[in-house]
Each structure stands twice: as C-alpha cells, then as structure tokens.
Amino acid sequence: MADDPKPEGTPTPESAPAPKPEAPPAEAKPEAAPAEKPAAPAAKPAPKPAAPKPPPVMETEPWEGELPDALKAEFGEQITGFLTYVGQSFLTAQVGAAVPIIQYLKHEWGFDYLVDVTATDDPAKPERFELVYILYSFSRNERIRVKARVKEGDKPPSAVPVHTTADWLEREVFDMFGIEFEGHPNMKRILMPDEWQGHPLRKDYSILGMDQKWVQDNLGIESGQ
Predict the structure, then answer these.
(1) Are residues 110 and 154 in the same domain?
(2) Domain check: are 134 and 196 in the same one?
(3) Which 8-state DSSP code applies to residue 125?
(4) Does 123 lie in the same domain as 71?
(5) What is the full per-residue pLDDT of the chain (225 aa) written as tens digits?
(6) Are residues 82 and 139 in the same domain?
(7) Domain count, the chain
(8) Residues 148, 216 share a domain
(9) Which residue among 116, 121, 185, 212 sits deepest, i.e. has the most Cβ atoms within 10 Å of its Cβ?
C-alpha cells in the first residue's frame, strides 16, 4: 500500500530540529561570610599628670596701729616685721626677743592666754624652723601671733616663766620637731613614747622610716603598715 502523501511543509523526521539540551542546574552560590566588625579604636594613652601647682603665695599686708607702734618703740630692731593676713595679725622677731615680747604683751596689753606654741619646718632655709606663739586677749577679744626662726640645734628660751601652759606646749614642739627650749623644767616627750627615735613632723622624717624597732617590739607589725 502506498504511503499517504504528507501535507506540504510537514517536516520529515530527518529535518525536525533536535531537542535543546537541558541547561545544567545552576550551581548554588556560597553564602557570603558575615561582614567582620570593625576593630575597636586603639585606646587613647592616659593623659600625663598635671604639673604640681606652685604653693600659694601668702599675700600679707602691713599691720599698723597703736599696738604695733608700741611694740616697735619698746623692742626696736628686735622685731623684724609687722604683718596681717586675712585679718590675723602677727609679728616676726629675733628668737631671743620672743619671750620678752610675750611677757610685755601679757602685762601691758592683756594678752594673758597662750593659746598654742607650734612650729614649721623648711630644711632649705638656714634657720629651718619657725616657732609660732599664738596669744589671745579676752579683754580686747584679739588674737596675735609671734613668730621667730630657729637654726638646727639652737635652744630658744622657754616661755614657762611667763605662761605655765608653755610647759606642755613646748614639750609637744620638742617631741614633733626636736627643738629643745632652754630653761624648760621638764624637757621630754609628751606624745610619742620616751624611747622613740626621731621627730615625726620634721620634713626629712619619712613615715616609712619611723622607729622600726619600736614598732616591731610593741605593735608586732612592720613600720608603715
């Protein structure tokens, strides 16, 4: 039987287009790594400590009036200055004149209360210590100070004959600074033990260098703990 004729334009199997090959599956892209966090900024260097401030200047004014005039007339050049600071009057004098000035102020001007005797220490000065006598007058309601510089090893006169309370006050100055007072009736320590070595308020006395033996023997610890 003869083959049926095919309509024109019908492609023959030989002329039919070959099927397109399937595209290979797309490869999965690797997941992106998480972004790294930015590094922390470098720590700033610690600021340099500020330079120490210079000590404040004691801005004094001249002390003028009836009392300084009378003292100047009585003691002359033995008094080296009359000054006042924030309303507190004081005079500076030669150390040998300090007790006579205190006696004069007691009997002539009513400064009959010796409030305190203390000292300061400045090893850089030839007269390293400054004695400070604080006097008060109840009748005048007034306080003044008498100051006198003392060299290492000098023994200023004791004020005990003028004010009995100087006994204990001068002992404290001796105990803390090592200043001995000529004519004192009982020149020995009052705060520290009698056998203690050194004087704690001197600028060259280190708290770590205190009497190690006494501390160990009596407290059972190392000095400075």
Answers:
(1) yes
(2) no
(3) S
(4) yes
(5) 455 555 555 555 555 556 666 666 666 666 666 666 776 677 777 788 888 888 778 789 999 999 999 999 999 999 999 999 999 999 999 999 999 999 999 999 999 999 999 999 999 999 999 999 999 999 999 999 999 999 999 999 999 999 999 999 999 999 999 999 999 999 999 999 888 888 999 998 877 766 677 777 777 777 655
(6) yes
(7) 2
(8) no
(9) 121
